[in-house]
Amino acid sequence: MPFCNPLEFFAVSIQFQIEKNSGPGRVGKLRAPHAVIDTPAFMPVGTVGSVKAVSQDLLERLGVQILLGNTYHLYLRPGLDVVRRMGGLHHFMGWRRAILTDSGGFQVFSLNDLRKVTEEGVTFRSHLDGSTHFLSPERAMEVQIGLGADIIMAFDECTEYPADRARLRESMEMTLRWAARSKKYFEEHKEEVPWASSQLSAPSSQKGGGGSDQWLVTSGKSDERETSDQALITNHSTQALFGIVQGGMDRELRRESALRTMEIGFPGYAIGGLSVGEPRELTREIVEYTLEHLPSDKPRYLMGVGTPEEIALYACMGVDMMDCVLPTRAARHGLLFTSEGRISIKQARYIEDDGPLDPQCQCPICVRYSRAYLRHLYAANEILAQVLNSIHNLHFYMETMRRVRQEIAAEGRKRGPKQ
Ligand SMILES: [Zn+2]
Question: How far is the centre of ligand 1, averaged over its atoms, from the C-alpha of 314 (Å)?
Answer without folding.
Answer: 23
